[in-house]
């Protein structure tokens, strides 16, 4: 175990990566593009995924692939500086804790664990080892969402009375993914709305809510049997009177629709959707504009890159992680209370 007190800035950091799934492709692109990072290895157990990644990114023998059973040897390498965890959520806590104990800084896709207890363990391990742990919530690096945050914090909107979030996914996730979700939970809340909840926690400065109510429905006949909701509406109330409403849907035919609104006594701030281009064509009978971005890799291309740059800044000692332990635990608690509300069909108090 390595206890670090003062960051040691390097021109290039040596990193390893856990996972080869869909989100891994986004982060792999940015890692390979970043001249400050040297990718030493990738851990993945699925041979089909390995071959697909090799083909998509033209990877040869210069970046070796290993099985998860070999990770102790990989993490013990003293030349390794950091680890990027983009494997299935069920593996996050184990990989994060192990990486930190071997003296590596860690960037992990959200969430750091499947429960508040797991997330707490990850952050406590980071504190004990003196290493960096950054959880990936890329919306915080998006200029439009940051503008809403600035408008609130500056007092320009007055006292905040309402926050609204909208998430309408595109394209619909595969049925394999949706049907494999934990039937005792609420995947649309825990997986899809987790970014909305992070925004809510960020805007309210991790204030603990007073109550939450979550209602869902299954529209898609193919999901009826497994009872996996594809539509959600939620209401969160805060002790200061702020009302938060969420709506989320698993499929939007017109593109990836992500919006955020804050309403206060002195005004309103709205983060709208950007489009594939800013072109508008007007004529005598109306006008047309381009479609919304198809999905999250296109919509949040710049924020994903900024997120990785922030991680490097943290390793350089120029910044501290934008997402804190307290915020991550607050997100986890809201999700856990929300799942209870969904299952018991009632308002749940905090």
Automatic annotation (TrEMBL):
What region holds the GFO/IDH/MocA-like oxidoreductase domain?
145-269
Q: Which GO terms describe its biological process?
A: NADPH regeneration
Could you confirm whether the keyword Oxidoreductase appears in this record?
A: yes
Carries keyword Oxidoreductase? yes
User: Which GO cellular component terms, listed alphabetically, does the Swiss-Prot or TrEMBL entry include?
Assistant: cytoplasm
Q: Which UniProt keywords apply?
A: Oxidoreductase
Tell me the ranges covered by the Gfo/Idh/MocA-like oxidoreductase N-terminal domain, including all copies. 14-137
Q: Extract the InterPro entries matched here.
A: Gfo/Idh/MocA-like_OxRdtase_N, GFO_IDH_MocA-like_dom, NAD(P)-bd_dom_sf
> Which GO MF terms does the UniProt record name?
nucleotide binding; oxidoreductase activity
Q: Which family does it belong to?
A: Belongs to the Gfo/Idh/MocA family.
Q: Which PANTHER family match?
A: BINDING ROSSMANN FOLD OXIDOREDUCTASE, PUTATIVE (AFU_ORTHOLOGUE AFUA_2G10240)-RELATED, NAD(P)-BINDING ROSSMANN-FOLD SUPERFAMILY PROTEIN-RELATED
The name this protein carries in UniProt is Inositol 2-dehydrogenase
The scientific name of the source species is Dreissena polymorpha (Zebra mussel)
| Phylogenetic classification of the source organism | Eukaryota, Metazoa, Spiralia, Lophotrochozoa, Mollusca
């Amino acid at each position: 175990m390595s206890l670090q007190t003062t960051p040691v800035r390097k021109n290039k950091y040596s990193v390893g990566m856990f996972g080869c799934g869909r989100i891994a492709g986004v982060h792999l692109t940015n890692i390979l593009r970043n001249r400050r990072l040297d990718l030493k290895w990738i851990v993945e157990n699925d041979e089909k995924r390995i071959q697909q990644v090799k083909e998509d990114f033209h990877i040869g023998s210069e970046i070796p692939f290993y099985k998860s059973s070999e990770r102790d040897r990989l993490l013990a390498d003293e030349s390794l500086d950091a680890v990027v965890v983009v494997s299935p959520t069920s593996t996050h806590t184990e990989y994060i804790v192990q990486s930190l104990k071997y003296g590596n800084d860690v960037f992990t896709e959200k969430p750091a664990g499947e429960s508040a207890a797991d997330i707490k363990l990850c952050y406590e391990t980071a504190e004990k080892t003196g290493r960096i742990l950054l959880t990936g919530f890329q919306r915080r690096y998006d200029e439009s969402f940051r503008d809403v945050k600035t408008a609130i914090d500056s007092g320009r909107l007055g006292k905040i009375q309402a926050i609204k979030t909208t998430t309408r996914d595109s394209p619909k996730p595969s049925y394999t993914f949706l049907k494999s979700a934990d039937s005792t939970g609420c995947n649309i809340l825990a997986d899809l709305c987790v970014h909305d909840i992070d925004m809510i926690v960020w805007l309210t400065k991790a204030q603990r809510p007073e109550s939450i109510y979550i209602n869902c429905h299954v529209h898609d006949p193919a999901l009826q049997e497994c009872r996996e909701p594809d539509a959600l509406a939620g209401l969160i109330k805060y002790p200061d009177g702020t009302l938060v409403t969420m709506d989320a849907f698993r499929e939007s035919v017109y593109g990836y629709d992500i919006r955020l609104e804050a309403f206060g006594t002195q005004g309103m701030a709205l983060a709208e959707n950007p489009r594939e281009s800013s072109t508008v064509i007007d004529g005598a009978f109306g006008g047309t504009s381009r479609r919304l971005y198809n999905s999250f890799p296109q919509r949040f291309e710049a924020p994903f890159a900024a997120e990785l740059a922030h991680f490097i800044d943290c390793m350089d000692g120029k910044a501290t992680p934008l997402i804190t332990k307290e915020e991550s635990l607050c997100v986890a608690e809201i999700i856990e209370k929300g799942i209870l509300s969904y299952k018991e069909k009632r308002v749940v108090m905090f």
